[in-house]
Design goal:
307 residues, alpha/beta, ten-stranded mixed beta sheet, 6 helices, 13 strands
Length: 307
């Protein structure tokens, strides 16, 4: 028996050994070993002599009884909970957790948590807005559409406004009510938000490719710091562009410490939302996988597909 295993066992019993000196490993002196007939044993540490009893009807009958009891208990015992894996494809309807966006904080489920395999998402307090970052083809645009679809589960009357170029998936998506071209942000965006947002109305403003979008009129900067009660502003951009944009209009969004870091650079991207990211992820970082951050606390999730 390896010493590493023997040291973990608290109760040890030594039957007849080949050499009397071998009992010293059980704390029994060789001179204290009695005649070791079949079935006789010594308890380690105390040296107590034990004679093992035999079943009255023989070994075969006793083995059959034990096997019968084990079979009966296995049939009625509760089976262990199976260990599931984090799926690489999750549909939003599978979360079975509609968004709660009537009273603050808003709860917007957008994916499945790796630790619990239950719904996870954004907790949005008054005056907070969100930021989604990641490298190319990591699922940023899909995450924006998932946020829009999740909001509609809690408020079907939500007005979804997207600032997106023709290459963005948001430009032609049916879930978007209004699409504003980047060149028309200064003229069109604020009037649309003013009509859609209010105490009893909710406006969701989504901005795709944020790192390459200039804010010449300061409209996006004002929305990123707006405290309108019926407004949620979510911007998505490349992680390297967001990190290095020290004077970019997305800078105020980082103060909320709220958003999603898709396939992040664990050495650098945590600073974007003030989160500490683990050095290693327990699963492969496929598209749509990353960390949802709420108040600087990161949780690994798989973002759900909107439909």
């Amino acid at each position: 028996v390896p010493s590493q295993l023997a040291s973990l066992v608290r109760q040890r019993m030594a039957l007849r050994l080949a050499d009397a000196y071998d009992y010293s490993g059980f704390g029994v002196r060789s001179t204290a070993v009695p005649e070791m007939v079949p079935g006789r044993a010594l308890l380690a540490g105390t040296g107590q002599v034990v004679q093992i009893a035999r079943p009255v009807d023989g070994l075969a009958a006793a083995a059959a009884r034990v096997a019968a009891r084990a079979t009966a208990s296995a049939a009625t015992a509760r089976r262990p909970v199976p260990i599931a894996n984090l799926a690489t494809v999750v549909q939003l309807v599978e979360l079975a957790a509609p968004a709660r966006i009537r009273d603050r904080p808003w709860s917007i489920p957008i994916g499945v948590a790796e630790r619990t395999l239950s719904a996870a998402g954004l907790m949005v307090y008054e005056g907070e807005h969100a930021l989604v970052t990641g490298p190319a083809r990591s699922g940023k645009s899909t995450t924006l559409l998932t946020v829009a679809a999740a909001c509609r589960t809690g408020r079907p009357d939500v007005s979804v406004i997207a600032v997106a170029g023709p290459r963005s998936p948001l430009a032609g998506d049916a879930s978007i009510d209004e699409v504003v071209a980047p060149v028309a942000v200064g003229d069109k965006l604020m009037p649309l938000v003013g009509e859609a947002a209010g105490p009893d109305r909710l406006a969701l403003v989504l901005v795709d490719d944020a790192e390459s979008l200039d804010d010449s009129g300061g409209v996006l900067d004002r929305l990123s710091t707006s405290d309108l009660p019926g407004l949620l502003f979510v911007a998505a951009g490349r992680n390297d562009g967001i990190r290095t944009g020290y004077s970019h209009w997305t800078r105020p969004l980082r103060r909320s410490k709220l958003g999603v870091l898709l396939r992040p650079d664990v050495d650098l991207d945590g600073d974007i939302l003030g989160a500490s990211l683990p050095r290693r992820a327990p699963v492969a970082m496929v598209p749509g996988r990353g960390y949802v951050v709420n108040s600087g606390e990161a949780e690994l999730i798989q973002v759900a597909l909107p439909r």
